[in-house]
Amino acid sequence: MSYWKKCSNCKTELKFGEPYQACSVSTCNHSRSGLQFCSTSCWSAHLPIYRHKEAWAIEKIAPTEAEWNKEQGGSVSAPQRRIIVPSLGGTSHGAQGAQGTKQVEKEILIVVSKLKGYIAATSEMSTSADVMEKLSDHLRELCDKAVKNAKNGGRKTVMARDFLV
Predict the structure, then answer these.
(1) How many CB atoms lie within 10 A of CB 42?
(2) pTM for the structure as a whole
(3) CATH code that applies to domain 95-164
């Protein structure tokens, strides 16, 4: 390949060792998004799309070809693979489904910081760590009842009304 990357806006080739523009906002520089621009006009074209409150273009220098190859491990990496985990709510009642359910039952289903914040704000009390496990168990029971109610109603979607019955 005779160039480092392409401009995120106009797709012009950015050459190794040449200057390019990057956005000052960290989400634009994240390894997954990695936006880079050939000019400040291409950089400014992305502003209406990303709606930054405060941003500016930063001039950077693209790595040399040798630096880039070293950074990439000297070879083209394998394409990313998506790992598909079987659904626990499916119609399979085999051993795998039961094992999967046992694994899920041990997880905390509550956003701990949100719950602790709520309790502190409404009562000025702190929250013990063992509350999360007990509350998650209670939530699982409520969800199991709601799933049964939805199935009894002939639906495959759990709705708010299924928790009230």
Answers:
(1) 20
(2) 0.42
(3) 1.10.20
